[in-house]
Amino acid sequence: MFITGVLLLLPELVGAESPLPVTTVELEAVLVHPVREAPAEAVALNDTRLGAEINGVIAAIDVAVGDRVERGQVLARVDCTPHRIEVARARAALDAGRATLEFSELQLDNARRLSERRSISQEELDKREADARTRKAELDRLQAALDAAGYTASKCTIAAPLNAVVIERIASVGDYAVPGTQILRLLDDENVEVSAKVQEQDLDGLEAAAEVRFTGRLRDHPVRLRTVLPLLERRLRTYEVRLRFTAEPAPPGAAGRLRWRVGGGRIPADLLVQRDGGLGVFVLADGHARFQPLPEARAGHPAATGLAPTTRLIVDGRFRVEDGQAVTVD
C-alpha cells in the first residue's frame, strides 16, 4: 500500500518544480545609444575685409589688432581735403545755377506779360519757356552733382559695419588708397555656426537626432541643425551641414567633432540569448519568464527593440531559463 501511494503522488511531486531564481534590471537602465560623429569647425558668418571706397591718402587708422569695435565706430580716415574742395565747387555751381534759373524765370514772366499785350511774338515766348525749362534741368543736374560730391566726401571716414574684433591691419597710414584697397580685417565673433562634413549614410540620423553637440578642445557646445547643403562631395560621399549654437558659441576657427545619438536605445549584445534559432531577451511577466524575440538582432551587435523602457529584463539566469518558466527575483 505504501509503495502504491508513493507512485500515485510522484507526478504531482515532479510537476511542483521550484521557481528558478533570477535577477532583473529595468530596460531603460541598460540601453546603449550608438553615437555618430563627423569632423567639424566653428566658422564666423562674417569675416570682413574693410576697404576704402574713394581715392586718397590714408590719414589715420584709429584701432589696433585685437580691439573690439562696435557698429558705426570710425576705424580709419582718408585725407578728405580734395573731396571737400569738390563739395565746395559743386555748391558754388549750384548757387550760380539757381541764380541763372531765377533770371530765366523772371524773363519768362516778362515775356508772358508782353505776349498778353501782343508786344512779343509767340516764337520769342516759346524760346523763353524753353530756356527756363533748360535752366531748371541744369539746376537739377547741379544738385545731383552736389549730392554725389557730398556722398564721396562722407566716405572719407571708414566705419565698422558690425560688432567685431580687429584681427588684421592690412594697410598703413600714408598709403595711397583707391576704391577696393583693403585697410582692416574684422571678424564677427558673435555670429558663429558649425560647419561639418557628414557621411551620406549618417544624414538621416543627424536630422532625426534629438541632441547634437559640437565637441571642441575645451568643452562641449549644444547645437541645432540649420541646413544641409544640397551638394554631395563625390570622392568622400559627404554633405556639408551647418548648425547653430544654442548656447555660448565656440570661438571662430575652433576645430572639433560633431556628435549625435542615432535613433532609440539598443539592448547590449551580451544580454541577448538564442532560442529556437533566433535572438531575443527574457522579460519578467507575472512571475514567469517570457522570451521576446528580436527579429533584427545580430550576434555580437546591440539590438533595436520596441519594448517599453520600464520592462524588466532577466539578467542572471537568462541562459538557463525557458519560455513560460516560473521564476523568483533575488
UniProtKB/TrEMBL annotation:
Which Gene3D superfamilies does the annotation name? 2.40.30.170, 2.40.50.100, Helix hairpin bin
Q: Which family does it belong to?
A: Belongs to the membrane fusion protein (MFP) (TC 8.A.1) family.
Q: Which NCBIfam families match?
A: RND_mfp (TIGR01730)
Where is the signal peptide, in residue numbers? Answer: none
- The residues that cross the membrane are none
Q: Which PANTHER family match?
A: HLYD FAMILY OF SECRETION PROTEINS (PTHR30469:SF15), MULTIDRUG RESISTANCE PROTEIN MDTA (PTHR30469)
Ranges for domain Multidrug resistance protein MdtA-like alpha-helical hairpin come to: 88-149
Return any one Pfam family short name. HH_MFP_RND
Stated name of the protein? Multidrug resistance protein MdtA-like alpha-helical hairpin domain-containing protein
Which GO cellular component does the record give, naming just one?
efflux pump complex
GO molecular function terms here? efflux transmembrane transporter activity
